[in-house]
Write a structure and sequence with these properties.
Shape: elongated
Number of helices: 12
Largest sheet: 7 strands, mixed
Distance between the termini: 53 Å
Helix content: 25-40%
Structural class: alpha/beta
Order of helices and strands: EEEEEHEHEHEHEHEHEHEHEHEHHHEEEE
Low-confidence stretches: 1-37
Strand order of the largest sheet: 11-10-12-13-14-17-18
Radius of gyration: 22 Å
Length: 410
């Protein structure tokens, strides 16, 4: 549809809020020529904006929005105005796939940030790849997304050229956690639980293999179901096993309840997990004091990074309702990497987007390199981040406190 010299106001419903979007005429390439002469480029966002993981999803969306606002304010790409299109996947793979189809169908979308969950990402990758649409996740950690299903056998094959991530993989995170629990915390007998999801089961398996390699013993295993709340059976198994620690592969809603119910059995032992439990909501989910519980998370504490000071100040000044949470810095960097790829493509095409802009942006992503909120941002031959910094956090006096940060070498 074409419109000449006409300003259309469309209403977009996003997480209960009404947003007015100004649209100008559209050319056949899907770009928008507004009265200012600018071309509109849309960065899609897919995350759980409602439901139990919305605290993380809203942080992702807001951080991408901040990157877009910054790019527009600084005129980062001459002649280009950036906007976002945020969709709620509710942490459900089928919804994520539907969102991928929708984003592919919006011609202005030249890159997508998200999703949060590895299982959701698996449902989206093929659609993005077929459309040459760049995807950058700030949170996916499952190795198979970038290195193929046989990565565990040493057979690395990148499945989709359009997939990138600013978070390191569970190969690194799982081993890092096992090393800390065995060597630093001195735990030798762990009970391993997972939530049967792609992220949780994969992370638990990598942790277990490394813990045993180091000389530790996995005294028992069990699984729980997402969105259930009664884990007393698992908690009693843990108590009876004589474990000196619990490792949980999953997210904070179930992780917090598991920690609570384990402690209610009288087993005063720490629960440890990955970045999926590193959230204040994990602590709130437990009625029992869970001081001593542990979590690993990708990167170093954003609040302590000199490179993140401006991001934190700008995020605060923007007045977002929700905090940037665990993946805010990585989401900003993911969006900024897309912006930098668009910048390179426009510069190489005499200041305009080419007809095959999506394919060109995907090509440019492999060469992106800049100092971001979380440190150096660049990607290896699999689309994985070259930044392999991780941190262990511990609950102390009802809050997460960082206790060890390092660049992990596999």
């Amino acid at each position: 549809m074409r419109h000449r010299s006409l300003l259309i106001l469309t209403t977009v419903i996003t997480t209960g809020a009404l947003t007015l979007t100004a649209c100008g005429s559209r050319d056949d390439k899907g770009t928008s020529d507004n009265s200012s002469g600018n071309t509109t480029v849309v960065i899609g966002v897919d995350a759980p904006l409602t439901g139990s993981l919305s605290a993380l999803g809203q942080g992702i969306k807001n951080s991408v929005d901040l990157a877009v606002q910054t790019a527009n304010k600084n005129k980062e790409v001459p002649g280009v105005t950036f906007k976002i299109e945020a969709l709620d996947d509710q942490a459900v793979p089928a919804t994520g796939k539907a969102n991928a189809t929708k984003l592919v169908g919006i011609k202005d979308v030249l890159g997508v940030v998200g999703p949060l969950n590895s299982g959701v990402s698996q449902s989206m990758q093929a659609d993005f790849d077929k459309a040459n649409l760049t995807q950058v996740s700030p949170a996916n950690t499952n190795p198979s997304l970038s290195q193929g299903d046989n990565w565990g056998k040493g057979d690395f094959k990148r499945p989709f050229k359009t997939y990138f991530r600013t978070a390191t993989t569970d190969v690194i995170q799982g081993k890092f956690a096992a090393n800390y629990l065995f060597k630093d915390a001195g735990k030798k007998k762990v009970f391993v639980v997972n939530d049967k999801q792609t992220y949780g089961a994969g992370l638990a398996a990598i942790f277990s293999d490394e813990f045993k390699r180091l000389g530790g013993t996995v005294v028992g295993t069990d699984s729980v179901t997402v969105k259930e709340t009664d884990f007393s059976s698992t908690a009693n198994k843990i108590k009876g096993s004589g474990a000196d620690s619990v490792y949980f592969g999953g997210q904070y809603p179930e992780g917090g309840l598991l920690s609570d119910q384990v402690k209610k059995t009288g087993a005063k032992i720490p629960t440890m997990g990955g970045d999926g439990i590193y959230d204040p909501e994990f602590i709130k989910a437990s009625g029992e004091a869970n001081d001593g519980d542990l979590a690993t998370s990708v990167g170093f504490p954003v609040e302590k990074l000199p490179t993140a000071k401006k991001f934190i100040a700008d995020y605060t000044a923007a007045g977002y309702k929700d905090p940037y949470a665990a993946y805010g810095g990585y989401s900003y960097d993911a969006a900024w990497s897309i912006i930098q790829a668009v910048k390179a493509v426009v510069a190489a095409n005499n200041g305009k987007l080419p007809d095959d802009a999506r394919a060109k942006v995907t090509e440019a992503m492999s060469k992106v390199s800049f100092e971001g909120v979380t440190g150096k941002v660049s990607f290896d031959e699999y689309g994985d981040t070259t930044n392999k910094q991780l941190t262990v956090y511990q609950v102390k006096n009802g809050a997460w406190v960082d206790v060890k940060s390092e660049t992990f070498k596999d």
